[in-house]
Amino acid sequence: MKGELTGGCLCGSVRYVLKEGMRLAPYACHCTDCQKRTGTAFSEHMLFAEKDIEVEGALDTAEYTQPSGAKSTIYGCGTCKARIYAVNDRRAGFASLRCGTLDVSSDIVPAAHVWVKSKQPWILIPKDSKTMETQPSSTEEWVSLVGLA
Predict the structure, then answer these.
(1) What is 11-25 written as a DSSP string?
(2) What's the mean per-residue pLDDT of the chain?
(3) Longest distance between any two alpha carbons in the chain, whole Å
(4) What Gene3D superfamilies would the database entry show (predicted)?
(5) What is the tally of structural domains in the chain?
(6) Cβ neighbours of residue 55 under 8 Å, at least 6 residues apart?
(7) CATH number, domain at 19?
(8) Confidence (pTM)
(9) d(CA 89, CA 110)
């Protein structure tokens, strides 16, 4: 996950470049919010410095208050509604990229799995994977769990 990364939405109306910079290794989230938002068992994310993303195309936004009370702003394609990234008010300057939007998403190997207490029972997490019942509560805890990319 080093170097410049590129990606975009399903229909191609939105493209982005994630410049080399401060980013954490990708992780899999098994929370019920991600399950509902994606319509599947989990999602893959990568925290990055928001200043490092350059987006071309029309984004729309939606706001959501997470169970923790954090207020999230979700950015996605205005045409196909694919979610690209989100920011929340508890991690100023950072954003969470939806890794499935990367051009080479097959290179993603989660450094950790969070919210495993709500994962689907048929999902098997490799025995040597780092896991957490919920999620880290601070940037320092995120870095400790997943590491820098």
Answers:
(1) SSS-EEEE-SSSBBP
(2) 93
(3) 41
(4) glutathione-dependent formaldehyde- activating enzyme (gfa) (3.90.1590.10)
(5) 1
(6) 14, 15, 16, 75, 84
(7) 3.90.1590.10
(8) 0.88
(9) 24
